[in-house]
Amino acid sequence: xxxxxxxxxxxxxxxxxxxxxxxxxxxxxxxxxxxxxxxxxxxxxxxxxxxxxxxxxxxxxxxxxxxxxxxxxxxxxxxxxxxxxxxxxxxxxxxxxxxxxxxxxxxxxxxxxxxxxxxxxxxxxxxxxxxxxxxxxxxxxxxxxxxxxxxxxxxxxxxxxxxxxxxxxxxxxxxxxxxxxxxxxxxxxxxxxxxxxxxxxxxxxxxxxxxxxxxxxxxxxxxxxxxxxxxxxxxxxxxxxxxxxxxxxxxxxxxxxxxxxxxxxxxxxxxxxxxxxxxxxxxxxxxxxxxxxxxxxxxxxxxxxxxxxxxxxxxxxxxxxxxxxxxxxxxxxxxxxxxxxxxxxxxxxxxxxxxxxxxxxxxxxxxxxxxxxxxxxxxxxxxxxxxxxxxxxxxxxxxxxxxxxxxxxxxxxxxxxxxxxxxxxxxxxxxxxxxxxxxxxxxxxxxxxxxxxxxxxxxxxxxxxxxxxxxxxxxxxxxxxxxxxxxxxxxxxxxxxxxxxxxxxxxxxxxxxxxxxxxxxxxxxxxxxxxxxxxxxxxxxxxxxxxxxxxxxxxxxxxxxxxxxxxxxxxxxxxxxxxxxxxxxxxxxxxxxxxxxxxxxxxxxxxxxxxxxxxxxxxxxxxxxxxxxxxxxxxxxxxxxxxxxxxxxxxxxxxx
Length: 656
Known about the structure:
Put_SAM_MeTrfase, single chain, alpha/beta, methyltransferase, transmembrane helix, 21 helices, methyltransferase activity
């Protein structure tokens, strides 16, 4: 019975004083006074109960570590089915409260046909990378390494099963221990430890891998190698924050730059060096599968402060300098390109490289020529290192085109366009400036001030509808939201989540709010987004990539601890089957990893009905501002399960 009905019934039952002819007026006054008292009492009770109900529903009990563990470890046996969310609540000793009917009156199991249970895939798919599948790659042209680019499966070949973890899979070591160690059972590949034994990339020690920090061109270790670079260009004054390492190996260069507050995108193909990128991510170091072939790297123009190649074996001088032209596109004005390995210092190493002096000299001369035509300045060549610097603007470069006709400066080109965009042999133009001292596109603050300073792309009005005030409001909003996440998921603050992905990063506010924790964030901007904000994210000193979530992401399975999905499914629900997006999230999420969804309740209920068949546990919560906000939060945990050892044994027997 509502307050209005309750109010009406109670008023109707108030006894009325009978009036008799000639009765004293005092009785009429007393009767009116009683009626008024009843009316006020009932009104007060309605208001009191309303306030109590609203207050009770806004109190969200945090998920304690013990409760989180209960959620994570439930259904460890692959044969177990995912229990109904309500029953999960009842068994959690009151630590959290799932109250789906309080505000929305939606039954989560009222979908036709019930919950669809997704079976596990065969164990042979445990390292499946849908868009970089070696078997599918054989069908494509090997010229310019096109076969190693993204080639996603057609709809009829999409898997509708869950990628299994290897038997005996364990949670990775916590950062910073993970920089140096990884469990062998998580990535059972000894190839690199044998092939690169002399170069100290990786060693097997009992049940784990150890990463000594070595590399092909830094036998003394990545730390000492970085110190050598720091003697030539300043790495620790805050001017260099973002870097890209092409042909990264196991990402030791990026791993050791982190303690110098430099965030590196380690970039390598899926090739004969088994699981390079997988090793990098297992260590807690940012990395992606990728290759310099015929298409642009999936990053905006002017993204990185520094680019690096240490014996990456990329033919920089081929195809009219096409690959160096692409590095020029993604380098910030004034950014550095560092090269070590062939052909640098060829007079010392030519015998070990099994190449002639003439061949190596010709290669270095060709690289030097391309760099000059790009208007780069050679900063220094010392010992094993050579460093070039991109100009801060193109005023002098335009004048130099009277001497160097090629490569010409691109015309009418969207410099940030990088999703399945072919590379071109022309120089990406820098924004215009008024004098030779001005930094094209705008100067950046030093790190860490850079993270919250208004980015130049916003200052100059390049992002439609986003002002400096919008930027500041977005920062405040995400500070509040991440503080709320910390309350409902305490492990956020304790290093439980190292590799974090934001599937719809916007202006990068979530990543900025996460900087206080021992985590890094892969900021993803949907390739078909109305606002291309990835350049803004890089200007803030964070890293990320373009991605169409109707396709698989360029990473190995089980490489992220926490996935943040804010309004992703509202964007994609009419573009492709969201079931496949959720299966892709399951593929890249580690066992016992967590997902935070933000969306309307209708979308979240649909998501929850699918994830119940994926061995996930979930809970819908109110928005941090209270129950009256139409946006809700769905918190989900992927349960622990692995492939069957017997299945692995059969697989090995088939291979033999």
